[in-house]
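Session log. Operator J.P. requested a structure for one protein chain; no other inputs attached. Running the standard single-chain path with token output.
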Amino acid sequence: MKKALVYLALIASLNSCSQKKEQLKEINMNITSDNIADKITEQVKHYPKEPIYYLYASNSLCIYEILVNDYPIHKNYKYEQEATPIYINKAILKSGRQKITYRLYPAPAEFNGGSDVFDLDTKFDVKVCKQDLKRSGSHEVIKEEKTPIKEIKVGDGENEKEIEFVGKGKKYYEYSFYFDAEVPYENEGWSNGEDLREIDQNLLKEWVLKFYLSRKKEIDNKDLDAIARLAYLPLKEQFISEYSETDRIKKGWNEYVATYKNMTYQFQPFENYKMVLFGEGKIVCLRQISTDVRLREKSALWGKYKDENGNTRGDFHNLYLYLPLNGNLSDLQVIR
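Structure written below.
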């Protein structure tokens, strides 16, 4: 009897997953370039409180990448000193504990005394901030993480000590910390995805490559409806997490698709790339292998085009894929 109940529960679960996948396919097939903004607007809700979370990062003698819940939210490989906020709501799927990870690398040799390892004075500080869009002036710092340091004795006296970065002499340093977020929405994101670490990696890479090349074909053919169907899920969840108004959604979509309407758009050679997993193994993408700071760790699929002023622009297709539970590799979808 117990085995029969377990079997029936399994069948029900599989049927539920199958029905859900069919529903998603049906929804996506109804998406077009003309109606995507309206379809997304229908899904966005507004609340008495609309919290937005963001980071401020300060770096010295290092470059970095920041992940939120193991999703890559920001990278700075040009050794720039940035003062703008890094918005992270699209990586926050629901209320609760959130994980922030930063990955540090030594600053370029010309800024680091010719060295390729961390200097003792390396610094990296992060502030986690919050603002309620319904309350002006509600900015607050809810967590602050300072550079991990250690004290080194430099003499026999009690006060003869120096402070240095704990990663001094290394070529890589990674650190994670947590904070609690409270948001009124809940996005599924990649939470119900398969653990891609358990799949044959060569086979996975083959299917991810197929997906990227399919995207390239859609852009080459100026298939705006196919582009819209692919963009629907990630854009929907992003705009939900940002409580976006209709005008913002329409403007965002028009700017997004305008790039691919541009007749000067040309893809660059698809080469020298690697497969990378994120989202605790539930997200996969293809990234470039390059020491050029303009290309380092950026999407392997990218193109160039001329803007309205005749300037050459680069466009990187950040296709972060996930596989719904019990799906086949042919069911890979863009989630961000």
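Operator note: Residues 25-46+188-335 form one domain.
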